[in-house]
């Protein structure tokens, strides 16, 4: 039996050679189309999550190495105050010495409607835990270059204050771990109460282990659509963690950014490495744009439904159990006296 070998003709060879790349090209084209479609859908999803935000660094409002815009000349964009001093690596607001105050303030009033501020800072010292103080603050206020008792700035301020508090003044009365970062909105009449660690005027906050940290420590403030978000990155994971979220907040324009610090009987080094401001481009609906245009100009900061942020602080005193046993023993004592 003889096997028959059928050889393809030259025409058949040419036909199969032409058809195979054609099918291969069709597959690649389909895969490419699917890939781009997936990219478009993904980008649309991300855009929706980010509310079409695009960030642009605004150097005139920013402070970073080599700190050329910082000084006492007429062309400087930032001013130093108190014990604040410039080094090649940071701006030291206060050294690890008692009874010091220092600050750095922008000279340029903020005119942006939507913005994001990223602050790189460092708090460190030789004192043991709870034997250090007092912390630092980041500001956006009407008044600048003012000394005072609130982390080196004036009390009853008008504007926004973010406090990185490292010393627990009211630790016995509050279930709170320190260091603690909190947000306060001042209208010129509210006072920050150090004895209560600012609880009575706090809008939100969180615990953040920022003192003597082995990693870089950052906080981020984002203000957009009357919403203020505070996030922190302090554990070296390069991930922002939620700290506070405040809605219905109205901030005027024309205020100044700053950072300040103070030490008392206890001390620490308080350093600002950078403060970088980004302008946010946010897509608004026609209704939102109309609302912005029709809204009256805000002259004093305010937040809608302020009562939702009020914290009831219990003073030191007897707990319910203590009161019960005190009353019980008092009754028993009176009974014994009556028998005698």
List keywords for this structure.
340 residues, alpha+beta, Jelly Rolls, eight-stranded antiparallel sheet, seven-stranded antiparallel sheet, 17 strands, disordered C terminus
Counted beta strands: 17
Uncertain residue ranges: 1-6, 12-25, 45-52, 311-326, 336-340
Gyration radius over CA: 30 Å
Largest sheet: 8 strands, antiparallel
Enter the CATH topology name.
Jelly Rolls
CATH top level assignment: Mainly Beta
The rough form would be described as globular
Assembly level: single chain
User: How many domains, as an integer?
Assistant: 1
SSE arrangement, N to C: HEEEEEEEEEEEEEEEEHEH
Number of DSSP helices?
3
CATH architecture: Sandwich
Beta percentage is 25-35%
Helix content: 10-25%
Mean pLDDT: 81
- N-C termini distance: 133 Å
Q: What class would the helix/strand composition place it in?
A: alpha+beta
Write up this protein:
Its main location: membrane. This protein has 340 residues and is α+β, with helices and mostly antiparallel strands. The protein has a single domain (54-282, 292-304), classed as Jelly Rolls. Helix content is 21%, strand content 31%. The chain is built from three helices and 17 strands. The strands form three sheets. Strands 1, 3, 4, 6, 11, 12, 13 and 16 form an eight-stranded antiparallel sheet that branches. A seven-stranded antiparallel sheet has the order 2-5-15-7-8-9-10, with no helix packed on it. It is globular and about 60 Å long.
């Amino acid at each position: 039996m003889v096997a028959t070998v059928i050889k393809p003709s030259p025409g058949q060879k040419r036909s199969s050679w032409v058809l195979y790349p054609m099918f291969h090209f069709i597959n690649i084209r389909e895969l490419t189309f699917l890939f781009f479609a997936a990219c478009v859908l993904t980008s649309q999803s991300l855009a929706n999550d980010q509310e079409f935000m695009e960030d642009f660094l605004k150097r005139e409002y920013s402070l970073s190495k080599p700190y050329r815009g910082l000084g006492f000349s007429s062309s400087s964009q930032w001013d130093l105050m108190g014990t604040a001093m410039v080094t090649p690596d940071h701006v030291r607001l206060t050294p690890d010495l008692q009874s010091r105050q220092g600050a750095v303030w922008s000279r340029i009033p903020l005119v942006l409607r939507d913005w994001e501020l990223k602050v790189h800072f460092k708090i460190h010292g030789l004192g043991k835990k709870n034997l250090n103080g007092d912390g630092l603050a980041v500001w956006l206020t009407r008044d600048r270059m003012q000394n005072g008792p609130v982390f080196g700035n004036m009390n009853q301020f008008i504007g926004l204050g973010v406090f990185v508090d490292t010393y627990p003044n009211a630790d016995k009365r509050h279930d709170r771990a320190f260091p603690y970062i909190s947000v306060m909105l001042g209208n010129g009449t509210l006072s920050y109460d150090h004895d209560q660690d600012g609880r009575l005027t706090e809008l939100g906050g969180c615990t953040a282990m920022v003192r003597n940290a082995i990693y870089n420590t950052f906080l981020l403030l984002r203000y957009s659509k009357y919403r203020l978000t505070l996030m922190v990155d302090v554990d070296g994971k390069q991930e922002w963690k939620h700290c506070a979220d405040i809605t219905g907040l109205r901030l005027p324009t024309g205020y100044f950014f700053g950072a300040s610090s103070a030490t008392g009987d206890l001390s620490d080094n308080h350093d600002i490495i950078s403060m970088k401001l980004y302008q946010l481009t946010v897509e608004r609906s026609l209704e939102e744009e109309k609302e912005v245009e029709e809204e009256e100009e805000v002259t004093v900061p305010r937040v809608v439904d302020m009562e939702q942020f009020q914290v009831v602080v219990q003073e030191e005193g007897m707990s319910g159990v203590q009161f019960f046993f005190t009353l019980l023993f008092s009754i028993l004592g009176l009974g014994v006296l009556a028998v005698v």
